[in-house]
Amino acid sequence: MLLTLAVIGPAHALKGEVRLEIRTDDPKRRLAPGTTVPTEPAHAGPLTVSRLRFDGSRWFAAFEQARDRTAAEALRGVRLLVDTDDDAPGSERAEDSEEAWYRHELIGLRALSASGEELGEVTDLEPGVAQDRLVVTTPEGDEVAVPFVEALVPDINPETGTVTLAPPGGLFPGRGQAEEAR
């Protein structure tokens, strides 16, 4: 299965460098110079990384196929992919890692409270800086972003098709009281 490593953002400077929106926990290895990665849409690649750098807050890359700003800007929005059929140690998710989840494994799970109350359905996993967020669509159609941390998402059970949530009061509309301001 092909999963997204990064999404190419705007061109940066004049020599074909682009900003990347990273979707992997190991960009240095997955996007090391010399690595050739498939793309979506397919007609944009495959692309071979010629340079990868981190400026302390953002990732940037250059590709052999885009050596100037015009060519780099044409890549904006292209997804860099990885084949996950090789779930070897060090890959995006190793088999023995119970705390790592692919987006496609979570979407469609029923979200339940600890007491078994139906909260909605997981419809997305948004990447975040501090932590990712599960997007739950309630039966009323509201979207709620739940920080994907163990305290708020204590159990994920793909066999039963459920994820148990322990949201603070007020996170879900009409459920619980919001905490008082201190």
UniProtKB/TrEMBL annotation:
InterPro entries: PRC_barrel-like_sf (IPR011033), PRC_RimM (IPR056792), RimM (IPR011961), RimM_N (IPR002676), RimM_N_sf (IPR036976), Transl_B-barrel_sf (IPR009000). The keyword Chaperone applies. Residues 158-182 are annotated as: Disordered. Keywords: Chaperone, Cytoplasm, Ribosome biogenesis, rRNA processing. GO terms for molecular function: ribosome binding. It is found in: Cytoplasm. Residues 104-171 form the Ribosome maturation factor RimM PRC barrel domain. Binds ribosomal protein uS19. The PRC barrel domain binds ribosomal protein uS19. HAMAP family: Ribosome_mat_RimM. PANTHER family: RIBOSOME MATURATION FACTOR RIMM. Belongs to the RimM family. This is Ribosome maturation factor RimM. It comes from Actinomyces oris.
